């Protein structure tokens, strides 16, 4: 199979005269039409394995986002019916600040049922491979991620993910029991998190529904865009981390001393989140560094191997969705003067909310850097295949 999923073209040259010159147009045609990596002893050029692609891959994996979106829609629809009929208790009843918490339970359940029906209708054609390429379909599909990622959730998903390493340390050190995970990952948080992941799947489907275009950004511009986006995406979490680390050290950076005393019980959690943000910033820089393409030497067992494109890109995209979702929620709260669930007096403390105001930009920059990284790796793999094919053709010309 070819990288595009179609039948493979084999170019047989075993019967050719090795002394016969192969013209450059012919060579270019071979390079263009057959992405070949090596020439076996039989003389037939065989295509390499398809390169990984974060949004579309050949074979069954191409249908994975569609299947995940379909299964999520069915499960959400079933849960919505059980909630509406009173068989199951509705988990969104406060004190959260999501759209599902701030409306009546009946209204929230109807909203979720409508989203489930829409998700089923939009994902099924992709599973059946009958979805057309249409701007209307793409834009319609994109409405679901907007609802699931930006309109419905609050801060809980990002907080629950950010607290995971902190909770692991607490459990390992014996300061907390395993029950702390249940306190953070409640039923409502799990549902919101599943919705964010479903939003990512529907985003993939929207991209696939968009008609193909021949517009192609130049490689130098691609490198520049990716580098600038990566630096922005790395700088913003560092700014957040500086304030939280300072508070843990007893320095009232951007806040009053009285407010620092009031939040003294949670500054250690802020320290953990700050350190986690710094690790994320370092990994973000890997999107534009060599060690983000090839595992460095100090990583035993992995050194020298290519970094899987999907691992880097999909991880970055998920984080970008989480910080964008939480950031937009915080921006809405700051603009309305209602920082939900923040400590009393947080609205008057600049450092308590200002770093988070840049989170939507962080998410957008991180997604841009990840997509630029994916395209750069794709082009590099394509150029490498062409070079290998050219070398194979030259080898056949040698008497």
TrEMBL record:
Location of region: Disordered: 1-21, 33-58
Keyword Iron among UniProt keywords: no
Keywords in alphabetical order: Membrane, Transmembrane, Transmembrane helix
Membrane-spanning segments: 67-90, 110-130, 142-164, 184-207, 228-249, 269-288, 309-331, 351-373
Claim: Phosphoprotein is one of the keywords in the record: no
The protein's name in its UniProt record: Uncharacterized protein
Organism for this UniProt entry: Antricoccus suffuscus
